[in-house]
Description:
This protein is an alpha+beta fold. The chain has helices at 11-21, 55-63, 87-102, 180-189, 194-203, 208-221, 225-238, 245-272, 280-294, 301-324, 331-344, 351-379, 383-396, 402-427, 432-445, 451-480, 487-500, 507-516, 520-523, 533-543, 558-569, 595-599, 605-613, 628-635, and strands at residues 3-7, 25-31, 34-41, 44-50, 53-54, 69-73, 150-154, 163-167, 573-575, 580-583, 589-591, 649-657, 660-666, 678-680, 690-691. Residues 119-196, 198-206 and 520-548 have low confidence and may be disordered.
Amino acid sequence: MTKSRFQGISLDSFLQMIQMDKTSCTLRVESRSGSGVMYIVNGELVDAECEDLSGSDAAFEIVSWRDISFEFENICDDRIRKINMPLMHLLMEGLKKRDDRDAGLIPELPAKPVQPEPVKKTDYTDLPEIPVLGIPAMSVFKESLPQYNETVVSGSVNEGAISFKTLEKKSSSPGLKYSRSLVMGAFAAFAIVAVVIAGILMFGGKSDEHKYLKIFDQVAKTPDFPEKINIIQKYLDDNKESEYFQKASEWLVQIKKEKAEKEFRSLDQQIKNLPIDKKFVSDAQKILSAYTRANPESTYNNEVAEKINKLPDIYEAAVFEKASVSVKDDIEAQAVALSAYLAEFPGSKNYEAAKTMYMDVEQKLFDNLVSMSGQCVEKNDFSPCVTKIESYRRIFGKDSRKYDVENLLANMAGGRDLIALRKNAAALGDDLEAKRDLYNEYLRNNRHDTDSRRQARMDSDEIERLIADRKDWESSRSYATNNSYPIKERARRLESFIARNPKSTYVPDAKNLLASMGSFRSSSESPSASISDTQASRKLLTDEQPSVVRSTSSSVDFAREWSVIEKASGNRFRNNGNGTFTDTMTGKIWCIVDSRKDAGRCLNYRDAQEYVKGLAIGGYGDWRMPTASELFAVYKNSPALPDTGSSWYWTSDALWRGVNEIVRIVRPGIEHEITNETVAVSDCGYVRAVRN
C-alpha cells in the first residue's frame, strides 16, 4: 500500500483526474472544518463519511471545505455503494453549498482544533530532496534508517514546484545502498497521479502534461457545460498529436454525456413552466426538438421522442387538472374552464369526470343565483343580480335551466327597470298622459308575468284612474258651472261625481262648488234624501249622463289599430273593413279598438256596461260584454291578440260575495296564466266588446 499526502491541490480537479484514470483509492481529507473519508472504485465515488454524515451528504460537505489537505491510499476496501449520482453533479452541489456558506445562507462550521503532530525521534539529517523528473542525484541513506515506506508530496499549482521524500523498508543487514530502487518503487506506486502532477508543476513548462492539467483545472472551475466543451474541444484541435489526446476525447464524451443528462433532467420542469394554452403542444415540442438537435448522440433521445408523442395527452391532462381545481370565491372561472375543456376534448379519458364536475358547478351557481335574487328583492337593488344571471347564461348557454333562469332574469331585470321607470315618471310631474305612455312602453317590453310587471300594471291603472278622474271632474265642473243648465241638475251632477269618486282628489273642489250654490240647499230636502248612502250612490251611477262614457269611434284610426293586431296574430283574425274583425277560430266578431282607445279612460263596471250598450261600431247595435272564456280564447291561444296597454278587461261574469258585487276580469297577454281574478264593481278597467 502506498500513501501520498497532498496539500494546496484542488480536490475537485483531483477527483476528476481519478475518474478519468479509473483509479481505485481512498482519500482521507482534513480541513479546519473537520475530517472525512472518500471511497473511490474504478474512478467512481461510491461512498463518503464525515462526522455523522455518510453517502452523498458527506460528499457534499467534504467538497465544500476550503484549505484542505488529503492523504491518498492506492487501495479501497469493499464498500456498499451509497452514491449513485454523476461526479459532476456531486461537485456542483458541494461547491454550491460552499457558496451558500460564504454568503451566510447556512452557518459556518466551527473550526476543528489542530492537534500538533508528534515529533519523530528518527534522524533524517542530510536527506536530500530529489527532483521528480530526471533524478540528477541519488541520496545515500544511513544504515540506521527506520523501516518506513511513505511518499510525501507538497506544493500547489501556483508554487511551480513540488518535492517529495521517499523511504522504503530496508533489510536489517548492514551497509549502504543507493536509493534508486526506492525512488522508482515510489514512482510505480503513484505514477498515475503524483508523478504527473509533481513533474508538471516542477517544471511548469509547455509539455503535454502541463497543457492537459491546465485545461483540466479550467474545466473544473467552469460551471457552464458549453464552455467546458469548448475548452476541451480547443485542446483537441490544438493537440492532435498529444499522448493525452485519447483521454481528452473520452473526457469530452463524458462531459457531453453529463450535459445531455443535466439538460434532459430539466426538460420536464421547462415543459411544466409553460402556460396551459393552445400553444402548449407546439411550444413543448420546440423545447424537446431543440434538445435532440443539441444532443444528437444522447442516450435519452428515445425518451424525448416518446415525450413528443405524449404531448397531446400531457396537454389534455394539464387542462383537466387546471379546470378541476376549484378557485376560491370564483367558481364561475372554474365553470368557464370546465366548459372549455369539454368543448376541446370530447371523448377524452377525463371527459365524463369533467362533465360531472361541470354539472355540479352549474347547480351550485344556480343555487347561488336563487339566494342572491332574494337578497336583491330585500334590498330593492336588482342590478347585481341581473349581471350575475347574464353571466350565468353566457357560461352555460340560454338553454341551461331555460325556464327557471329566464324567470329569474325577468324578475330581476323587471325590478331594475321598474325602479328606473318610477324615477322617470316622477320627473314628469303632473303630465299624466306622458306617464301613461311611459308605463305602456314598459309593459310592452316586459311580457313576463312578474311581480314588477304586476306592480307596473297597478301603477298604470292608477294613472288611468287619475286621468279618468280628471276628465270626469273637468266634465262635471264644466257642466256645474254652466249657467245655461238648471241649478238643480248642476248640483245633481256634482253629487253624482262625489258618489262615483269618493277617493278623488277633486272631491273637496266638488263639495266647495256644491256649497257655493247655496240656494239649492233647500231644494235638496226632498224625499230622496232619506234613502241610504249606498242606494243614493247606485242611483246616481245609474242616472249618470251617457255622454260621460260615450264612444268616440268616429275619431279612431281603425287602420292603424288593425295593423297592430294583424302583425301579432297573423291570419287568425280577418278584418271586416268596418271597425270590426272576425276570429276565424270561433266565428265571433270583435271591435278592433277597446274602450281605452275609444273612450280614452278606464271605466267602472256600470260605466262599462253603459259604454257597450251605446256602441254602434260597424253599424251593429247588439254589442255585449264578453265572458271570461271568450276573452281567454282570443288572448291566451296563439296566435293571440296583442297587449295594447290596457291593464285588464271587464267580463260579463258578475257575482255576489256577501253583500258586495264582484266581477271576474281577464288580463291581456299570452304570458299571463288563466286565473279567476275578480275585482269590485267600483274598480276602473276596460272593455272589449263582442257580438255573435
